[in-house]
Structure formats: C-alpha cells, structure tokens
Amino acid sequence: MPDTPSALSWAALFDMDGVLIDNTDFHINAWLQFAQHHNRPLTKDQYVDHINGRVSADAMAYVFQRPISPGELIVLTEEKEAIYRELYRPHLQPAPGLLAFLAALKAQGVKLAVGTSAPESNVRFTLDGLPLRPYFDAIVDSSMIHKGKPAPEIYLTAAERVGIEPARCVVFEDAFAGIEAGIRAGMKVIAVATTHTRDELADVGSMLIVDDFTQLTVEAVQQLIQSS
Ligand SMILES: O=P(O)(O)OC[C@H]1O[C@@H](O)[C@H](O)[C@@H](O)[C@@H]1O
C-alpha cells in the first residue's frame, strides 16, 4: 500500500521538564533550597541563565564554581532532585493537551521520543508517575550522553534510537539550552512558552511558539517537516 502523507515517517522529540510537565518553578525552588543548604549564592536569574535545561554535571559545576568529581555528582544530584520531587509530587500532572496530542501522534504512526537533561531517577518519577512511558519509542536521559544541552547529542541520540534522520525530527523545548540543542542537531524546533515568555522566545530560532499542546495538531506539525 502506498504511503499516505500522514504515514510518511517523522519523529516528535520531547524535552521532559518544562514541556511534558510544567514544573520549572519547582526546579527553581529546589535549586535555591539546595544552594542555600550548601551556602552557595544562587538567584532565580542565575538559574534561568545557567542551569535551566542543563545536565546536573554542568549545573553543579556552576553552583559550586569548580569541577565536581563523579562520586560527588551522584550524591549532590540526588540531594537536589529529592528536594525537587518532594516539592513537585503533589502537583505532578501532564502539560495541558499533552495526552491527546501524544495519542494523536501515535495514531498517525509518528515516532515519539524523550530527550531530557534530567537524571534517570527524575525520568522514572515523571514518566512512570503519570504514566507516560508507554507513549515513547525511545527515552534518552543524561546518563546516556557525554555532552548535555546546548550540545546536540541528546537529540541526535534520540533520533538515532527511533531511526529517523534529524531533518525529519521536530523538537519540543522550553529552555534556551534545549532549543539551541535542537537547532544544532539540524531539527525543527517548536518552543513551548512555559519557562520563558513568547517575547523572550521570539528570536531564538524556533519555527513556532505555543503556550501548550492544546494549540497544536499533528497536521500542523507535519507541515513544518514538509515545508523544507
Ligand atoms: O528540560 P530537561 O532537559 O528535561 O531538563 C531537566 C533539567 O532541567 C533543569 O532545568 C533542572 O533544573 C534540572 O534539575 C533538570 O534535571
């Protein structure tokens, strides 16, 4: 049977924090608590500019202003993420429109993956807690890559795992570092205005800005792929 346009293969790659779930304020509060506990200065603006969307190794090196050994990184990361999970657990819910959008993509045969800077413990908390894991063909977290966002490795690895070339991948991102990672991977990026305002996202190179998934259809996203 010939391929219908909707069956042409492409992939939707989702960032996790700030996209699948609208949790940025909880990460901010967790980071501020964690930094205070370690007597390290950290402001919300510094979080947004230097930590948001980045892997823990890079975030911790920024907070402590020195390289962090692998053993120390595991301990510090779990300390910070335990604070975050405790704060966010009562609020855990999928982003508006997400479940219907994922179901529609799956029904059209679109490959689905997650590309997150988060550690595996937070991936379990989110994807099994909701639960969202069954929707995805591949999940790439910080333990599976060498260079975190804004390097393109997370999204290139996700594309490889679902067997779709980068030019036929659409990335959904809220963070500047993640948007840059998607663009550097040669993918189309849709910015989700959770962490940043539409104005702040206006000039960062995304093809579209949405407030949430209620504003998207599979057909509209597929047109982005076909438009180039
Ligand atoms: O947005 P992503 O790639 O899912 O990133 C997850 C990371 O996002 C950061 O913003 C959080 O402060 C981290 O703690 C978290 O691990």
TrEMBL record:
It comes from the Bacteria. It is an enzyme of class 5 (isomerase). Its cofactor is Mg(2+). It holds the Pfam family HAD_2. Keywords: Carbohydrate metabolism, Isomerase, Magnesium, Metal-binding, Phosphoprotein. It catalyses: beta-D-glucose 1-phosphate = beta-D-glucose 6-phosphate. The keyword Phosphoprotein applies. The keyword NAD does not apply. Gene3D superfamilies: HAD superfamily/HAD-like (3.40.50.1000), Putative phosphatase, domain 2 (1.10.150.240). Its EC number is 5.4.2.6. NCBIfam families: HAD-SF-IA-v3 (TIGR01509), PGMB-YQAB-SF (TIGR02009). Belongs to the HAD-like hydrolase superfamily. CbbY/CbbZ/Gph/YieH family. This is Beta-phosphoglucomutase. It comes from Spirosoma telluris.
